[in-house]
Write a structure and sequence with these properties.
single chain; 391 residues; alpha+beta; four-stranded mixed β-sheet; four-stranded antiparallel β-sheet; 11 helices; 14% strand; globular
Length: 391
């Protein structure tokens, strides 16, 4: 994509390279995905076998870490090619499964602040699609206010001893590593005294307890740390400066997941369904289709601003807000139109094969990775600051 001054307009043609990449990815996924594929959020051996196979194929063809620098096993692609990759993965119900975390922000953060030993130890597993990471941030009393976290890490000779609890931890039951935020000291400023640890999930003292929910397997887990010991080589960045690392994580998460690509897929499959014969349903479909286009364009605007080094929290939050609202809107529309037929997986694939999964997954859209209230607060603050400067 080219921009004619981001504020003045954009050329929405992503270019020949992006179109060729999209065609290549669709052909690859058509070969690798079974009929009726709709989710990777399952511990079922056949599902995880598909995830492993797709990740291995992508890695072999230098596509898994497309935007990573070549020195770390990537292809050095631009942001638009990375956008195409993310869109196609989500349009095919994210067959990379738990790898998205390592690929999208664990790996990039390691490149920025990790030691040479940490990069050598962890990046090959991520770029090869073999290492699964989980994020140890949220706690029972520390969700949106992440800086209030309490899981403690104290010095004991040459080691750190971790005690406490994390919650809502996706893929904790599959992960080999945890990107863990812990409190190593206390001060009047709660953002100080936090340290990031790279913790093996098979460490003695770690206990993972799944949380049953309508979202299905692997979405939600509690993780308990009981005298878990790690060395200094597990510390990422400076001791006590973990909030700086967390800000890097948030920077890489700013644009967020291209949920609109999966929603476009659902809407395209919904077109022509007999349930849309009703005028009210047809009108709702048309409105939702417009919202899908708006979400995509806002996301593209955020990517263009990021490419130009001008992306603000306001623009990133606007794009995320449109996308997460669309996710729930599309899920509810599909469930209403399909009715009871959409509540059971269809072994033949197609729309009825994934309506229920999309509906269940969408419930978390306005909570995960920053609640909708936080996104609105970011937008409102930026608008008020802009108005104050203009007055």
């Amino acid at each position: 994509m080219t921009t004619r001054g981001v504020g003045g307009g954009m050329d929405l043609d992503l270019g020949a390279a992006a179109r060729a990449l999209r065609t290549r990815l669709r052909a690859l996924l058509a070969e690798e995905l079974p009929d009726g594929w709709s989710t990777s959020f399952s511990l079922a051996p056949d599902v995880q076998a598909v995830v492993a196979r797709v990740c291995r194929r992508l890695a072999d063809e230098n596509l898994l870490t497309l935007s990573w620098p070549t020195e770390y096993g990537g292809a050095g692609a631009d942001l638009w090619q990375q956008t195409v990759l993310r869109e196609e993965m989500w349009a095919h119900f994210e067959p990379r499964g738990p790898q998205y975390m390592g690929l999208n922000w664990v790996g990039p953060v390691l490149m920025e602040v990790g030691t040479s030993e940490q990069r050598a130890r962890h990046l090959p597993g991520i770029s090869g699609g073999t290492a699964v990471w989980c994020q140890g941030f949220s706690e029972p009393e520390s969700g949106t206010d992440l800086a209030s976290l309490q899981l403690a890490a104290r010095r004991d000779g040459a080691e750190w001893v971790l005690n406490g609890q994390k919650i809502w931890t996706s893929y904790a039951g599959l992960a080999q590593w945890c990107f863990l935020a812990a409190r190593t000291s206390r001060s009047e400023k709660k953002h100080e005294g936090i340290t990031i640890f790279l913790v093996p999930m098979d460490s003695p003292g770690i206990n993972v307890v799944p949380i049953d929910s309508m979202m299905g397997e692997q979405h939600l887990n509690e993780v308990f740390f009981d005298d878990v010991r790690v060395g200094d080589d597990a510390v990422l960045g400076d001791v006590g400066r973990g909030w700086d690392v967390i800000r890097l994580v948030l920077k890489h998460e700013r644009i967020g997941i291209p949920r609109y690509a999966r929603d476009d897929r659902v809407l395209s499959e919904l077109a022509g369904h007999e349930g849309l014969d009703e005028p009210a349903a047809a009108g709702e479909y048309a409105r939702t289709l417009v919202h899908a286009r708006v979400a995509r364009l806002l996301s593209y605007r955020a990517v263009a601003l990021n490419e130009a080094g001008e992306l603000t929290d306001q623009e990133a939050s606007l794009a995320r807000l449109a996308s997460i609202q669309l996710d729930q809107e599309v899920a509810e529309l599909a469930a209403d139109v399909c009715g009871a037929d959409g509540l059971a997986p269809d072994p033949g694939g197609g729309l009825l094969g994934h309506v229920e999964d999309v509906l269940r997954y969408s419930r978390s859209a306005t909570i995960a990775s920053g609640t909708i209230e936080v996104q609105r607060l970011v937008i409102a603050r930026a608008a008020l600051e802009g108005a104050a400067r203009a007055s």
